[in-house]
Amino acid sequence: MRIISIANQKGGVAKTTTTINLGASLAAMGRKVLLIDLDPQAHTTLGLSIEPDSLTKTILNVLEPHRSKNKLKLEEVIIEVKLGEEDNLFLAPSNIDFASAEYKLIDQIGREDYLSAAVRECKIPFDYVLIDCPPSLGILTVNALKASSEVIVPMQPHYFALRGIEEFMETAEIVRKNLNHPLKINILITIADLRSNLAQEVIEEIKRYFGDQLFKTVIRKNIALVEASSQGVPALYYNPNCHGAIDYYKLAEEVISFEKEEISTRI
To the nearest whole number, what is the mean pLDDT of the chain? Predict the structure, then answer.
């Protein structure tokens, strides 16, 4: 099982869009995928046509303190997402109640490990777990990083975005040192207008800065991605021929290629 956080403390960089569309593409390739909505805004939940306010069980129940009567196991809150013939995509949803999670966790012993423990103890065998993180570097994001072996950091090709990534890298380094938990970090360029000379210049700068940590796939700016989100479906099921669907499918292929590299390394 590969556990990957989609994280960046900056909002509006396509974290949720990446979580949903990468997850759907991996599922379409035959992988069993769990999406965890760790954001109180519940955009991943909404983006899959699930109304957060109607839910009685969410990821909040999984992160409740151990003695809470509301605490549930991860498999008890998981919802199967029906998209097509495949039954490979699942969701641990969120809603606005989740906004209290950081307050509940702040004085708990071992609070950084709550999500990690829940994923490890889950009885459902997933190939991939993708965690949509909130736009902050608080305890929820630290929980996600501690649960993960990999992080995808979406970023737009803007000069100021590089400074924000440096802050995230510092947080990842704190997790690595203080919690003794190494993380493989990969950068994903999103919402890129490849017709813009400025965007092309910034992309070249990002390539020089991050080198092998940068995905080869670039997610192009595409209105169909926005339209698909408003319809509550991944782009692959909204318009499979749009740039957004094609780019995220290529990203899934690249992610799977890492999987193959890891297997060959172990052999």
Answer: 88
Strand partners, 128: 2, 33
CA distance 19 to 4: 10
Query: Token pair of 148, please?
Result: 């993960």
Separation between Cα atoms, residue 130 and residue 143, nearest integer Å: 13
Q: Do the beta carbons of residue 140 and residue 60 sit within 8 Å? A: no
User: Is the pLDDT assigned to residue 265 strictly greater than 60?
Assistant: no
Sheet strand arrangement including 33-37: 79-80, 89-92, 33-37, 128-132, 2-6, 150-155, 184-192, 214-220
pTM, two decimals, is 0.91
Helices (H), the chain: 15-28, 43-46, 59-62, 101-105, 114-121, 139-147, 159-178, 197-210, 223-231, 235-238, 243-266
27: CATH: 3.40.50.300
Closest CA to 98 of 126, 77, 76: 77
Q: Which pLDDT value is given to residue 261?
A: 58
Residue-number span of the structural domain to which 211 is assigned: 2-266
Tokens 């190939």 belong to which residue? 127
Residue 33 DSSP symbol: E
pLDDT per residue as tens digits for the range 48-79: 999 998 999 999 899 887 777 888 999 999 99
Mean pLDDT, residues 144-172 taken together:
85
Count the domains in the chain: 1
How many Cβ atoms sit within 10 Å of the Cβ of residue 264? 8
